[in-house]
Amino acid sequence: MISLAYRDVAKGFGRYLATGLGLGLLIGVTLTMAGVYRGMVEDGRALLEAAGADLWVVQQHTLGPFAEPSSISDEMIRGILAVPGVREAGNVAYLTMEVSHGGKSVRIMLAGYEPGRPGGPGRLVAGRPITRNHYELVADLRTGFRIGDVVPIRRHDYTVVGLAAGLRSPSGDPMVFLPLKDAQEIQFLKDNDALFRDRRRLEENPVFNPPGNPGLLGTVEETLFSNHRVNAVLVRLAPGYSADEVAAQIRRWLRLTAYTDAEMEEILIGQLIATAAKQIGLFLAILTLVSAAIVALTIYSMTQTKLKEIAVLKLIGTPNRLIAGMIVQESMGLGAIGFLAGKLAVTWWAPLFPKHVVLVERDTLVALAVTLVICLVASMAGVRSALRVSPASAIGG
Questions:
Q1: Which end of the chain offers a freer environment for a tag, N or C, measured as fewer CB atoms within 10 Å?
Q2: If you average pLDDT over every residue of the chain, what do you get?
Q3: What gap in Å lies between CA 137 and CA 112, rounded to an integer?
């Protein structure tokens, strides 16, 4: 049986190998898409782990700060710190934007936090944490920034003082950490024309500039140039307190929404990434069907080209199980070549992807099992065609 399959493949080895390599590209794409999903999940969990928060306090009735917009006053932190069980809290602001560096544009998620409070980048791989209130930043390695680089963001230049690894947004953008005040200014900064129009509008409004009381013009400037909004407050609890109980107190007394770390992970992975997971699942199903069709057509075509040889084998008394085994072995060999080529391909091109691709052993083993099952099922068409051949056709032909 092994000799039959070997001799048959050897006759058309070039086409057989090319088909296996083409199948390998499909398997490589399948593994890559699974790795992209794993990367999104890992990025979400790494972001939550770096924040180190027991509770995420956001605007009431929102899923913020990642799944929905959330805006609360930075002064709410005082009320949160007064809640029993709250040991530490920190305001944070998040913004996705593009910055220019080294002649190219880099898409980042900007995170503003208060140094020494929750929300920072966690452990660094190089440099130092942010120590000043302005114009310093810590960046993820995938931004391409280096220690000492000066990065222009809106109206100011920021010096890279530290580097972190594995900190990306749920959409795969590398993160950059700034002092909170800088992040607030960047997020709500207005251009000069907008400032001029707003100043004129506010000065003409009697609420801000009533007759006989020009001193209230100071309120105009404060309204235009100051910002006291953040996207969330991160809370760390004192030992012995339940996150659910403290969250309930915040919802009840401060009229804010508070999520535990587990609930925020469910929002990030179970809801924010869910749509991407469905799309990836659909593509995987389509690629599986395409792979099965390729194997089935290839094996069926190979079987059709040797029907006369199969009839001769039957005429000399070769059992059907040996003929069927030959076709199945050819199909399984095609799958083995395809899987090996796909595994090598995804290992080579995964680091080149802009998205974070995580390759896990379980996905590789599942892909191998699915490939072999597909090849086994796809060979049935060729087996059926071969078993229907009459030995008499060897004489009549």
A1: C
A2: 83
A3: 9
Cβ atoms of 326 and 8 closer than 8 Å: yes
Residue pair 90/68 in contact by the 8 Å Cβ criterion: no
- Terminal C-alpha separation, the chain: 25
Asked whether 256 and 73 are in contact (CB, 8 A), the reply is no
Distance CA(87)–CA(175), nearest Å, equals 27
How many CB atoms are located within 10 Å of the residue 206 CB? 9
Convert the pLDDT of each residue in 58-95 to its tens digit: 999 998 788 888 999 989 999 999 999 999 999 999 99
User: Which regions of the chain does DSSP assign to beta strands (E)?
Assistant: 55-58, 72-73, 86-101, 104-113, 126-127, 136-140, 150-153, 156-164, 175-179, 229-230, 232-237, 257-260
Alpha carbon distance 280, 30 (integer Å): 9
Q: Which residues contact 129 (CB under 8 A, 6 or more apart)?
A: 115, 120, 121, 138, 161, 162
How many Å apart are CA 145 and CA 141, to the nearest integer? 7
Q: Which residues contact 84 (CB under 8 A, 6 or more apart)?
A: 241, 246, 249
Measuring CA to CA, which residue among 41, 40, 56 is closest to residue 173?
A: 40
Residue 264, exposed/middle/buried by CB under 10 A (0-12, 13-18, 19+)? buried
**Rounded distance between C-alpha atoms, residue 253 and residue 82, angstroms:** 11
Q: Is the pLDDT of residue 315 over 80?
A: no
Tell me the two tokens of residue 356.
């974070």
The DSSP annotation for 268-300 comes to: IIIIITHHHHHHHHHHHHHHHHHHHHHHHHHHH
Report the alpha-carbon distance of residue 201 to residue 353 in Å, rounded: 48
Q: What's the pTM?
A: 0.75
Mean pLDDT of 126-146: 92
Within 13 A of 12's CA, how many CA atoms are on the CB side? 16
